[in-house]
Amino acid sequence: MFVLDKLNRVQIADGVYFNRIFDDRFKTSRIAVTMLVGLNRDTVAANALVPNVLTRCCKRYPSFLELSRQLNMMYGAALSGRGGKLGEVQPITISAACIDDRYALDGESVYKQLAELVCSVIFEPKLTDGCFDTEDFKQEQRQMLDAIDTEYNDKRVYAFNQMLQTMCEDELYSISKHGTKEQVLALTPQCVYDAYKEIIKTARVEIMCLGSTDSDEVCELFKEKFSQIERKPLTYKTEVIQKALTVKEKTEKINVMQSKLILGFRTASAQPNDEQVAQTTLMGMVLGGTAHSKLFLNVREKLSLCYYCACRFDGYKGIMYIESGVEKQNIEKAKTAILEQLEDMKNGVITDEEIASAKLSVSNSFLSSVDSSSGTQSWYIGQILKGTQRTPQEEADLLCSVTKEQIVVAANKLTLDTVYVLTSKDTAEEGE
Fold first, then answer.
1. Domains of the chain, earliest start first
2. How high is the pLDDT of residue 385?
3. Within 13 Å of residue 247, how many CA atoms lie on the same side as its CB?
4. Which DSSP symbol is given to 228?
5. How many Cα neighbours within 13 Å face the side chain of 56?
6. Which of 27, 181, 192, 409 has its CA 20 to 30 A from that of 52?
């Protein structure tokens, strides 16, 4: 059974929190160190590359092969680094997992070894001439450039990113989690190392340790490591725009087989206002979050105007998006149909079946999110970052308490901000 009273949280340094999570449901133990810094156009690319370089090797295991060999010696432990975007905050995470000590041979403490390895990776990186090794840097730089190319080649992802840049042009939220290709190409081993040093010094740090093993030694290890750093943690806040005053429209024409139509809305609902976020979340599920939603059943199935049509809500930024893949000749028809469904919701045209289906879907999603150790750890860090301490069941109960009247109120708070279209060139344009 999942309960949040298994969480023990202590501050071990300025802006550094150690979170112990006792959970014996799994055969693995996990450690994740999340460092939170503000999104910034000048530093986003270097920050994003830091976890990749750190988890490639370290001073103790100075090659990718040696680090991989050590992980294999620890019953096939896993180590990874990733960047991201959470509102207008950039989380940089180093995570690792290993077999739980209950299943190790001869009383071996694999968990302690894992903690030592994570600390080696974070606090003792491999350096050459006072900065990150050039060859290690180049390998990870190439992989990040490949990731950016992959996003460009996936036109659904590309269109979404372009819509965000249009909608939030003057906001930090428009920044890609990787930075631009040009920014990544301009990086050097020295500037990425400088970014690493700044992160270690100024980031808010959340250390999550999950498993059935006593983590006192792990806590002391991290406490000792951070005590050697002169910390000056900074705080960051996401800007939330309550209402769109005008509608921005952008059409981009390239060679695509399927056109993309994305509508971006301001919702006036964002963390930490949990009740408003819950109401807007359920409203989005009724509108376009399930296979029984209005957009799916009417715009996609009944009218056959698109290949997919769904909405999602970012509760950290207070923005809702409706995405659809359409034939070029159906773009305006699909847009009109989508807005008609939203207008119906604003007028209270919502059935009990639609609400019940949305509540069931979101409840199942919450409850299944903690069926793995990685999902459980993600749930805890999500609750900590939101400033709440709810179990999945409590979160589901909050959503299920939302009434039809509250859904209507949430729908009426939506204001259309941006209409983005990605479509193919006309025949005459292709010949130019």
1. 4-227 (3.30.830.10), 248-430 (3.30.830.10)
2. 83
3. 10
4. T
5. 20
6. 27
